[in-house]
Amino acid sequence: MKKHDNLIAGQWVSHGNYQENRNPSDITDVIGLYTHGDAAAVDDAVAAAQAARAGWAAATPQARHDLLEKTGRALAERAEEIGRLLSREEGKTLAEGIGETMRAAQVFKFFAGEALRQTGDLTPSVRPDIDVEITREPVGVVGLITPWNFPIAIPAWKIAPALAYGNCVVMKPAELTPGCAHVIAEILHDSGCPAGVFNLVMGRGSAVGEAIVTHPGIDAVSFTGSAATGGHIAETCGRLRKKVQLEMGGKNPMVVLDDADLSVAVPACLNGTFFSTGQRCTASSRLIVTEGIHDAFVAELTRQMRALRVGDALDPATQIGPVVDGRQLQSNLDYVALARDEAQEVIGGDRLELAQQGFYQAPALFLGTTNAMRINREEIFGPCGSVIRVADFDEALAVANDTEFGLSAGICTSSLRAARDFRRRVQAGMVMVNLPTAGVDYHVPFGGRKGSSFGPREQGRYAAEFYTTVKTSYVFAG
Ligand SMILES: NC(=O)C1=CN([C@@H]2O[C@H](COP(=O)(O)OP(=O)(O)OC[C@H]3O[C@@H](n4cnc5c(N)ncnc54)[C@H](OP(=O)(O)O)[C@@H]3O)[C@@H](O)[C@H]2O)C=CC1
Ligand SMILES: O=C(O)CCC(=O)C(=O)O
Q1: ipTM score for this prediction
Q2: Of the residues 446, 453, 457, which should be mutated to test ligand 2's pocket, given the most ligand atoms within 8 Å of the CB?
Q3: What's the pLDDT tens digit per position in 132-180?
Q4: Can you give the residue ranges of the Aldehyde dehydrogenase domain (predicted)?
Q5: Distance from C-alpha of 50 to C-alpha of 330, rounded to nearest angstrom
Q6: Has 247 been annotated as catalytic?
Q7: Is any ligand 2 atom within 6 A of the Cβ of residue 282?
Q8: pTM
Q9: Span(s) in the chain for CATH 3.40.309.10
């Protein structure tokens, strides 16, 4: 069985303590062994990053571009193979795994371009004979902590801007999905990334993650994951005066109005709610449907949901892969049990026993629910959606906004006026009209409001806000 080590100071380093990476479609399938570092490994990685910091900050835009472009090209060339690894370790379908790998490749290529497009401002002072120059500099050494649900895209959209803007990186991937992050580390290493500029430390969140967040040599932390861990990291970073960026949960509303086209609304809801096994922070978990279309919508969505093929992620016929692990599956099943108490009706949601030993669950629809129910307030993160019946647009908007989260929100309607009103008044960082709430572009800002996000936006040119710090210089020319 192949052993995979951490990348520290340009060397592959074993810390022993190899953990099995298992396939959630078939838990007898061990993908590989991955070493687990600890706080001492983080010390070494931070020391390497600090040593490399001045050199990388001074590297030419061309050098940064070339590294990122080469990495993006390698990911694209190997998309089939890496997508297969992704589906094997995380459980999303092969098409989704390959698609996510291509997205990671595009993210690296986008930020290769951004490395060449960094600009500043030169402006006259309010005083005579003085020029003012406003420039952006790297933040320094950034700690990146990533979740299991997008094991290659999320690392990519944190690593690429960090390196493009001249930072050094210490990264910890989720324990459940170290494989894709390890592949990025291999590609960066083989593409000539200078020693110490990018460091990978696999290990437990409570050990390696904590050590990254609290280490005095880490200047900023970017995290994606649960609201609980994000809140803890925000408190620590606040106390230590570190820059922090958090992407956390969602309870995303999808409003379906009477005038919606069912041939648009049902596929949008099916995709947003169930695809990627519902394991997306942008998933449509609350389907808010007006009276006139409610019954027809529920009938068609139920029909299409029941037809979804749940199975091995690597089987090309599979539409919904397994849940990522036994703990997440048990949590989903607990929510289905809760829905049986709270909702008027529950369709699907049971554990499925297939030929392989995997964590399979039938998609679930909860009918006759209200927004006050726990199933509509807490993030489930599984293939489960609730339908909330409302009278009209105003009630739909009020219900959509009545949540502690604010990541993505959608509306299906044929009315330009309703769509415009919704876009302006919904409290979310991203709004979709006649599209699923999940599935975003790689070149524009990603992030939310309220309990979903904290700090500057990720992705697109807005990523510069987090990965750079502004300097204002005054020059007397007199
Ligand atoms: N917004 C999103 O995209 C995601 C949301 N979630 C939500 O979170 C729930 C639980 O998932 P889970 O994977 O446990 O999420 P976590 O928030 O625990 O994990 C996210 C990342 O943070 C790390 N981590 C854990 N504890 C700490 C800590 N004290 N300090 C620093 N880093 C830490 C994890 O490491 P390790 O893997 O080693 O524990 C992982 O790399 C899901 O059911 C879902 O609701 C989960 C994933 C993504
Ligand atoms: O919906 C998407 O495309 C991205 C979702 C995401 O980033 C997440 O679930 O963490």
Answers
A1: 0.97
A2: 446
A3: 999 999 999 999 999 999 999 999 999 999 999 999 999 999 999 999 9
A4: 17-472
A5: 42
A6: yes
A7: yes
A8: 0.98
A9: 252-433
